[in-house]
Amino acid sequence: MTAPTPMKICVFLSASDLDERYTAPTREFAELVGRAGHTLVWGGSDAGLMKVVADGVRAGGGRLSGFSVDFLRQFARADVDEMTVAKDLAERKAMLLAAADAVVVLAGGLGTLDEATEALELRKHGLFDKPVVLLNTAGFYDGLILQLRRMDEEGFLPVPLADLVFIADTGAEALAYLEKTTRLAG
Ligand SMILES: CC(C)=CCNc1ncnc2c1ncn2[C@@H]1O[C@H](COP(=O)(O)O)[C@@H](O)[C@H]1O
């Protein structure tokens, strides 16, 4: 089997400390990303699941490329390969999406939802062509998926939902999809 092409994978996920239901799948996904030689592109924080993902990618041997934001810079992780500080959240979102080859959304709160919907809205308008995966850890996004499917079925989306986002149940499935998509595009 040929080695996967190294990718810069932007991960949006919670900055909160959560229980094992969320930390274990996050760590598992992160280690797969690191072991495959990919770079983590993320919000740069050393808190909650954002720390878990960075620790896991590091442990797997991958690179860390952080994009913090001025008012949160005191939470930025020290041990990184690169850290950029944006002036505000809007600039940070644009930088994260520009730096990445692909986006994976893990369990998160409002910050994650804001980032995920921005990526999907840009895809909807054809302004962002990198793949977006929603990783439905522990069924966390069942409610959001129901809402998105209703938008799709009832004519709220100008493009099919399947063209906007790939829904995965496991980190391995998410990564396999990205590696296949990148190979086809390359
Ligand atoms: C302890 C503490 C306040 C840590 C600093 N907090 C943060 N640092 C960096 N990015 C963040 C922070 N909170 C939210 N974000 C952004 O919003 C997302 C997480 O927000 P949430 O926890 O889902 O809503 C992340 O993908 C990140 O890009």
From TrEMBL:
<dbReference type="InterPro" id="IPR031100">
    <property type="entry name" value="LOG_fam"/>
</dbReference>
<protein>
    <recommendedName>
        <fullName>Cytokinin riboside 5'-monophosphate phosphoribohydrolase</fullName>
        <ecNumber>3.2.2.n1</ecNumber>
    </recommendedName>
</protein>
<keyword id="KW-0203">Cytokinin biosynthesis</keyword>
<dbReference type="GO" id="GO:0016799">
    <property type="term" value="F:hydrolase activity, hydrolyzing N-glycosyl compounds"/>
</dbReference>
<dbReference type="InterPro" id="IPR005269">
    <property type="entry name" value="LOG"/>
</dbReference>
<dbReference type="Pfam" id="PF03641">
    <property type="entry name" value="Lysine_decarbox"/>
</dbReference>
<dbReference type="GO" id="GO:0009691">
    <property type="term" value="P:cytokinin biosynthetic process"/>
</dbReference>
<comment type="similarity">
    <text>Belongs to the LOG family.</text>
</comment>
<dbReference type="GO" id="GO:0005829">
    <property type="term" value="C:cytosol"/>
</dbReference>
<keyword id="KW-0378">Hydrolase</keyword>
